[in-house]
Design brief:
Low-confidence stretches: none
Mean pLDDT: 79
Number of helices: 4
Strand order of the largest sheet: 5-4-9-1-10
Distance between the termini: 108 Å
Strand content: 15-25%
Largest sheet: 5 strands, antiparallel
Order of helices and strands: HHEEEHEEEEEEHE
CATH class of one domain: Alpha Beta
CATH architecture of one domain: 2-Layer Sandwich
């Protein structure tokens, strides 16, 4: 009887040690999972705060832009110098605060298949590279989903999938998710996009469609502010 107990003691002890180790491992794993969930929740809350602040700021800038446009119309009605007004319009076209139209291209980008995202969906880097290529091709004005591209434009990712342009979300729940408009030499624009951008995007499963047409681009609804830069007096 004692011999039987001695033979059984070692396996039971080993089993108890293994069981204790597994229980300890499970407890530690659960702690790590809980901590990771808390961190993700904190990040999500922080991203929501950033997004809400960006939306509020954009609303404020839109109101300011409307006010300035109304003041400009008043000056025009008062009979300001035509050359000054023409130069002002030109400046506004250059900085993107003037809506414009002209010959160009419409580029549609769809990173979904049967309603589901492809393996390699469109990224902010893809959009930035596309915009840079259009600029290099001589595009005079560019917009993405209604957001005018200007010198201060940032294309960034908020959260896991929301893309911000000029601090405004541009994702569309339905229809073609991304539409890029560009004004410029249609032959050159089409050539650059077809040869430099379309092929790698298509390899990632993204549907790329390029159409020549006369396009209308909205004005930049934000505003320029300079907190550190100032002009140099002659």
């Amino acid at each position: 009887m004692r011999r039987w107990k001695r033979k059984l003691a070692l396996p039971v002890t080993l089993a108890a040690i293994v069981l204790g180790f597994l229980i300890s491992l499970q407890i530690n794993t659960q702690k790590n999972v809980t901590a990771a969930e808390q961190i993700n929740q904190q990040r999500l809350e922080a991203m929501k705060t950033v997004l809400n602040n960006s939306i509020a700021k954009n609303t404020e800038l839109r109101a300011e832009n409307r006010e300035l446009s109304e003041r400009l119309d008043e000056v025009r009605q008062e009979g300001a110098d035509s050359q000054v007004l023409a130069e002002l319009v030109k400046r506004r076209m250059m900085d993107g605060t003037q809506a414009v139209q002209g010959p160009g291209v419409l580029i549609t980008l769809d990173d979904r298949k049967q309603g589901q995202k492809v393996v390699f969906p469109l990224t902010t880097d893809d959009l930035t590279r596309l915009i840079n290529t259009l600029k290099f091709a001589g595009a005079e004005a560019i917009s993405i989903n209604g957001q005018r591209i200007v010198s201060t434009t940032a294309i960034v990712l908020s959260g896991s999938s929301t893309i911000l342009v000029n601090q405004v979300p541009i994702n569309r729940p339905q229809g073609v998710p991304f539409e890029v408009l560009a004004i410029g030499n249609q032959d050159v624009l089409e050539d650059y996009i077809s040869k430099l951008e379309a092929a790698p995007l298509k390899q990632n499963g993204i549907t790329v469609t390029l159409t020549r047409k006369t396009v209308q681009l909205p004005s930049f609804k934000g505003s320029y502010s300079f907190n550190f830069a100032s002009d140099i007096q002659a």
